[in-house]
């Protein structure tokens, strides 16, 4: 523990339960001396265990549906009041596809649900950034991180329309990262995480086989939620000030591996 985030203030979206990546980020941010507000959709506040996390981290919890500009405006206003000033970091750890959840094949999408997938998982990132910029809510050198998955670049058939949402999310990080960088030196990146056993992760068909496949294909093995949290903390810190508009692979080497000896062995067995 080095208090790498001492004096920093932030908002953490997406802690549903102790398995959530955002949960681990909150625990690590707390250990590193940050002050922050926790937020999630009102339904998640009712169903999840975020209260426990709030108590542990001494953090207020504000409900906000990330697709609602009104909710996001309220969240940004209230957070600055509670924390006593502008923000230094924001974690967007939000993903949901009704099509994936209800088993709709990519070639047979329900288009209302498709809209929802894109709105919740990608457009919410733009909405959050636009509200923050309008309100000048983020300090210079502040850092915004969104979580993504390699299905944005390569085909993983069971990831369905979430692949499209993640491509859009990564594109928003680049485009908004340009404009926010020029205007206020705010940096925006996405972290592309290994498959991780969380509520969102295990909603994908065949997840158990898949997580083991990815583990065999990664020279370092799959990165877990805690390791992802550590990477987020480094991105919120002042040690990464010139990293912006990037999609950062956090996957134990999976994305640059064509085939691995471990996987070949498994195929033989
Ligand atoms: N688990 C994995 O394998 C994996 C891999 C790569 C990237 N990711 C990404 O990491 C992020 C976090 O997911 P997780 O794996 O921790 O799962 P999780 O289910 O714990 O988190 C997803 C969160 O999104 C929230 N959410 C859904 N709809 C919302 C809305 N309308 N407004 C506000 N919040 C809403 C949920 O309440 C939940 O807290 C997601 O973006 C996910 O796509 C996950």
Care to give the gist of this entry?
By secondary structure, the protein is an alpha/beta fold. It contains 11 helices and 7 strands.
Descriptive terms for the model:
alpha/beta; Rossmann fold; binds nicotinamide-adenine-dinucleotide; globular; single chain; 16% strand; 269 residues; 11 helices
Uncertain stretches: none
Q: Which structural category fits the helices and strands?
A: alpha/beta
Superfamily at the CATH H level? NAD(P)-binding Rossmann-like Domain
Mean pLDDT metric: 96
The CATH class name reads Alpha Beta
How far apart the termini lie comes to: 43 Å
For the largest beta-sheet, the strand count, sense and barrel status come to: 7 strands, parallel
Strand order of the largest sheet: 3-2-1-4-5-6-7
Count of helical stretches: 11
**Rg measurement, Å:** 18 Å
Give the CATH architecture.
Answer: 3-Layer(aba) Sandwich
Range of helix content: 40-55%
What order do the helices and strands follow? EHEHHEHEHHEHEHHHEH
> Could you name the CATH topology?
Rossmann fold
Strand runs, count:
7
Tally the structural domains: 1
Overall, the morphology is: globular
The percentage of residues in β strands lies in 15-25%
Bound molecules: nicotinamide-adenine-dinucleotide
């Amino acid at each position: 523990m080095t208090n790498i985030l001492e004096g920093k203030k932030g908002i953490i979206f997406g802690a549903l339960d102790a398995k959530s990546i955002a949960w681990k980020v909150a625990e690590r941010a707390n250990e590193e001396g940050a002050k922050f507000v926790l937020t999630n959709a009102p339904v998640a506040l009712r169903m999840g265990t975020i209260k426990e996390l709030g108590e542990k981290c001494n953090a207020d919890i504000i409900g906000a549906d990330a697709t609602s500009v009104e909710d996001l405006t309220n969240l940004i206003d209230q957070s600055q009041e509670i924390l006593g000033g502008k923000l230094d970091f924001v974690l967007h750890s939000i993903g949901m596809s009704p099509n994936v959840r209800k088993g709709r094949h990519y070639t047979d999408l329900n288009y209302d649900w498709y809209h929802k997938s894109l709105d919740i998982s990608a457009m919410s990132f733009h909405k959050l950034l636009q509200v923050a910029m309008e309100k000048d809510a983020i300090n210079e050198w502040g850092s915004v991180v969104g979580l993504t998955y390699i299905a944005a670049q390569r085909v993983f058939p069971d990831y369905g329309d979430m692949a499209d949402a993640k491509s859009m999310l990564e594109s928003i990080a680049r485009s908004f990262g340009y404009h926010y960088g020029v205007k206020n030196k705010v940096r925006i990146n996405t972290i592309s995480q290994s498959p991780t056993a969380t509520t969102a992760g295990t909603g994908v068909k065949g997840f158990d086989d898949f997580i083991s496949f990815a583990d065999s294909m990664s020279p370092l093995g799959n990165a877990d939620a805690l390791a992802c949290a550590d990477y987020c903390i480094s991105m919120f810190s002042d040690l990464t000030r010139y990293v912006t508009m990037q999609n950062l692979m956090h996957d134990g080497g999976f994305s640059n591996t064509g085939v691995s000896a471990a996987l070949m062995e498994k195929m033989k067995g």
